[in-house]
Amino acid sequence: MKAFHRIMAGLWVELVPKLDHSQQSPWEIAAQWVVPQEVYPEAGKMGATMHAMATKKIIKADVNYKGTQLKALLILGGQKVVFKPKWYSRSYVVEEEPYAGYDRHNAEVAAIHLNRILGFHRAPLVVGRYAHLQTEIKPVAREQLLNTFLTVGNSMCFYGKCYYCRETEPACADGDMMEGSITLWLPDVWSLQKHRHPWGRTYREGKLSRWEYDESYCPHLLDIIDTAYIPHHCVFDYLIGNADHHHYESFQDDEDSSMLILLDNAKSFGNPSLNERSILASLYQCCIIQNGALKSALKSAMARDPISPVLSDPHLDTVNQRLLNVLATVKQCTDQFGIDTVLVQDRMLLSHL
């Protein structure tokens, strides 16, 4: 039992204000962490950077045009970050399609902790933060963002600029205080290359993607890309309930040594009762995956975040159930093809489409 508690304690990230024995800023330290195989190191070195993300003064705020969902671009002491606002309470259940609804800021926070529990280290750092819209954001907001602020009842709101952003659908604070997530911007020296996800959806009613009807889809892809990566990450997507990964990114101009980078995990943890098996399509179609008490570990890892509790108990419970489903799918594959065929080494290679 003591060993278990030591493991749980090791998952905590203490948000400490200072870096030990360093004259560099938290942002400079974080930039040096990024290499082709990982975005951040072990938990013990992350606390000062995440503390800065949660507390540093906001000196500039602007719209963020990229993507379909509302977000703001903030500058914290010279560091660029992305702010995603709170839309839903922890207990709210997103119905309809598995990719329906607004972004969930707390899902971004939960995803980074699960990402490091699984040993991936392949997503930018994310931390929860409270921002006072009236005193922290509006005074430093650029005109394009400032023009989207409005008051609904007793709450300050904004709707920003994005593909689906509408004045009729603003994100609203609790009074003037808005809860959200802060995602650290990757260093500019690491350019990203976007790839269409081979198991992406059409998002059109009545129109299926090829993988949804072609039984030979994966064997066809094996001649084109290294599919060992996709099943590896579909497990992560399945555990968090993210059915909305239509693209994936890698570092550009890094020959064959770059990993897949897990960006934009906010369409996760929408419905704890829905275990969308189609997210695992690349696993059960290809039957290849890298060789290598989840609820307690995830809960422990998120315990020190400023917006804790990050997830409700039903969402924590369903992660355990989804992991069992993953193991059952892997067993189905090994029974059919044999363990040596299904379990492959982490090659850290990309053969781009």
Automatic annotation (TrEMBL):
Subcellular compartments: Golgi apparatus
Domain of life: Eukaryota
Alphabetically ordered keywords of this record: ATP-binding, Disulfide bond, Glycoprotein, Golgi apparatus, Manganese, Metal-binding, Nucleotide-binding
Pfam families to which the protein is assigned, alphabetical: Fam20C (PF06702)
GO CC annotation, single: Golgi apparatus
Binding site for Mn(2+): 103, 264
Protein name as catalogued: FAM20 C-terminal domain-containing protein
Biological source species: Cricetulus griseus
